[in-house]
Amino acid sequence: MRPLDALAKVCGDVRPGEPAEGVLGVEPALVAAPENVTEAADVMRVAAENGLAVVPRGAETRLDWGAPPERCDLLVDTHRLDGLIEHAAGDLVAKAEAGLPMERLAEKLAERDQRLALDVPLPGSTVGGTIATGAAGPLRSLYGTPRSLVIGLTIVRADGQVARSGGKVVKNVAGYDLGRLFSGSFGTLGLIVDATFRLHPVPAATAYVVCAVSGPEDAHDAVQTVLHCAVAPSAVEYIGPSGTVAVLLEGVPDGVAARARQTADLLGENAEISGTAPDGWGRYPDGTTLIDISAPPPALRDLLTLLGPDIAVTWSGSGHGHVGLPAESTPDEVADVLGRLRDALGRHRGGAVVRYTPEEVRGEIDLWGPVPALALMRRVKDQFDPDHRLSPGRFAGGI
Amino acid sequence: MEARLAVLAARLEELLGAGRVITDPVRLRTYECDGLTNHRSTPAVVVLPDTAEQIAGIVRECAAAGTPYVARGSGTGLSGGALPRADGVLIVTSRMRRILEIDIPGQRAVVEPGVVNLDVTRAVRPHGYYFAPDPSSQQICSVGGNVAENSGGAHCLKYGFTAHHVLSCEVVTPDGEIVELPADGPGYDLLGVFVGAEGTLGITTKITVRLTRLPETVQTLLAAFGSIEAGGGAVSAIIGAGVVPAAIEMMDALSIEAAEAAVRCEYPPGAGAVLIVELDGPEAEVAAQFTEVERLCRDAGAFEIRIAADDEERALIWKGRKSAFAAVGRISPAYIVQDGVIPRTALPQVLAQIDALSAESGVRVANVFHAGDGNLHPLVLFDDAEPGAEERAEAVSGAILDLCIEHGGSITGEHGVGVDKSRYMPRMFTDTDLDTMQMVRCGFDPDGLCNPGKVFPTPRLCGEVPGVRRGAHPYEGKADLF
């Protein structure tokens, strides 16, 4: 039986792929959109029986991240897996299917004044894609990234077996935490079909304190001032090239008002209190090359010095940020910035990973930089996907 | 001692020097158990390394000899995670207790695994910081042990577990390599799965922890209720109001009685349950929320509320709670400390079911719990002099875990699976779930020598992966391209 027919027997939505659906130019032979976990498992099983290379797809907001797959025989599209399975408001827990868009999840949770405390830098992105790419924004300073908020995960393995880890309680140390392992694994270990999250209440009040800074030294001082004071911000961001330090405060109305004033006083006369986020907040910096950086707070000064005043950057007080390079950057220029970032951040035990960049640049640079424990990662990959059929070649070290 | 172990011990002594290898049977007995004393096993050899390189050497020697090994920090674990192997080596990290770096601008510190949890906080408190995970044993437990167990504590309701406060670990892998596992590096989040793997994936030798800013203020109240149900109602109301307290702890009448007998904590007489609620953060924030918590407690039927005016009064409020486990010794010759989790909203129902279990079996159960996150610590009481009593207590204790699973909870919230609960894992997870978790283990430790027999009821045979590749690795020579 042809793979298409075999897939059509187990899944209600299977068709040949189209050129426009290419993953970084690699056109999928087939596309299957399972409707539930059983269909997803059957699709993965048929893929295994037919030796198909599988790339999961959510809303395509980050399908151009990483390296192109070596092969893509089958795109497994999660758009029909879009249910909110459970919202246990009293327990501050929700279970959602992988294809559910983050905004729709947020709307549902907001009905009970709750939220999943993750920013959504790219509108439309799904629950599964957010986990698979470890995506987060400014709120990561206080609430962490998907790895901190996923408390249960259901995946389909390369061989079509369904496996769960964690559960639906926040406090749980039974067994290995595959939720953390799968966060940021870019579809190379298995297909994420649903996830259970820890939720937080929507704060009664929020305020932003926004302060223009002039240069790396000033930015460093402003950030350090906020980090070491007692206002307990939910997020501290640097946004460039505008040169803004912004602080998010969340809580009860009186408390937020008082803390905002306190923060503004600390930051000096340039600081303003606002009810809305400043431009660039929670978004990736503009550009056709996006570099994900790990840069602890003491590295901010070096980071901004090497980037200069014109390069777009967002950086969070948690020590993580993004650099955007403009379309006109040549491969040499990208390689140069990347090399200098790795040198400078490496001294602070940070690093830089290219998320996306034009094709002509991609071939000329090392997207990942040094990957610690790569041999161990490969051995884990070999266990989960011995035939290397899941998003092959998409990930660090050619995994 | 078996000849091959004697050979190994001699090699380890060459590696570590005299005095760092223990083979004397009397001295070995010191290490026969961890905090869970009903499981005992005297290790064949105990080693006391000082450095990561030494641990790497020990692991390589063990691997070459095919000898299992177990890492141990302070030995305070409550699931037998550091239970030694009679045919193996116990690697004790308690000599590795240097705080290597304190980086206040970067809000982090680098410590060796044997550093005591509270010592991190003591070292950084003058700078206005602390290390947030606060297991009850924090005065003696080690950070390495916290990493292995993903330790929590009363305040993890707001601040999360060890996994949320570890930025990187240097690890000796089961093949004796020293590698760094950062939380925020390229590639898989191996740190994420390493933390909480109960020492089955390798041994951490250096830990970069996140430091948390000390809150501007802390407010603590104790509310007394006529019944557990009323106390549970207050918990639901507080969480429902959108308040995230630093901690919410509850004790039932029997555990209050025990605490009273042991430490005279002078909780309100006649209370069927007491609730301790602690809020921390900026003053303006805490003041408003504290008033609301107080009101919600009264609305839920609290007949007495005490508010700590200062640290001394706060310590008094916590005294009863913190002493509760040990205090139960005052009202029962022996007891089992259980650790299970339920969805918070199931609290009244599950407690009623525990009551029923207790009534049916005649086994008394005192309840102490982290009510905010549904983490129950039922203390199952028995008289070890009475034939069959321990078995009956074990049965009740196991039935409580079944209740937790039935309600969608977990068999352990913070004590870990270890040897104690591996038999319950198949009740919570399918064979495929467990097999999938063990794929990680096979990736790290294909020979199964690193803390074997813990967490999983049956080991996976790592060689049995269909299609496993032999010979040259398909990535060979390719990785440098990326």
Could you give a quick summary of the protein structure above?
The complex is a heterodimer of chains A (399) and B (482). Chain A is built from 13 helices and 19 strands.
Name the chain pair whose interface involves the most residues.
A-B, 96 and 107 residues
Overall structural domain count of chain A: 4
- Low-pLDDT segments of chain A: none
Rg over CA atoms of chain B = 23 Å
Share of helix of chain A, binned: 25-40%
End-to-end span of chain A in angstroms?
30 Å
Strand percentage of chain A lies at: 15-25%
The general outline of chain B is globular
Which structural class do you get from the secondary structure elements of chain B? alpha+beta
The number of domains of chain B: 4
- Please write the CATH class name of the largest domain in chain B: Alpha Beta
CATH topology of the largest domain in chain B: Alpha-Beta Plaits
Mean pLDDT of chain A: 97
Could you describe the 3D structure shown?
- Chain B: Its cofactor is FAD.
- Chain B: It comes from Actinomadura soli.
- Chain B: This is FAD-binding protein.
- Chain B: InterPro entries: FAD-bd_oxidored_4_C, FAD-bd_PCMH, FAD-bd_PCMH-like_sf, FAD-bd_PCMH_sub2, FAD-linked_Oxase-like_C, FAD-linked_OxidoTrans_Type4, Oxid_FAD_bind_N, Vanillyl_alc_oxidase_C-sub2.
- The complex is a heterodimer of chains A (399) and B (482).
- Chain A has helices at 3-10, 37-49, 102-110, 127-132, 140-143, 146-149, 178-182, 216-227, 253-267, 300-307, 331-346, 359-362, 374-384, and strands at 14-16, 30-32, 54-57, 74-77, 84-88, 93-97, 114-115, 150-156, 162-166, 191-198, 200-201, 205-212, 235-240, 244-251, 271-274, 289-294, 312-316, 320-325, 351-356.
- In chain A, the strands form 4 sheets. An 8-stranded antiparallel beta sheet of chain A has the order 15-12-14-13-17-18-16-19.
- Helix content of chain A is 29%, strand content 24%.
- The mean pLDDT of chain A is 97.
- The longest helix of chain A is centred in the last third of the chain and has 16 residues, at 331-346.
- Chain A contains 13 helices and 19 strands.
- Chain A is of the alpha+beta class and 399 residues long.
- In chain A, a hairpin with a 4-residue loop joins strand 5 and strand 6.
- Chain B has 4 domains: 3-92, Uridine Diphospho-n-acetylenolpyruvylglucosamine Reductase, domain 2, CATH 3.30.43; 102-213, Uridine Diphospho-n-acetylenolpyruvylglucosamine Reductase, domain 3; 215-328, Alpha-Beta Plaits (2-Layer Sandwich), CATH 3.30.70.2190; 332-446, 2-Layer Sandwich (Alpha-Beta Plaits).
- Chain B has 15 helices and 19 strands.
- The longest helix of chain B has 18 residues, at 389-406.
- Mean pLDDT of chain B is 93; it is low at 465-482.
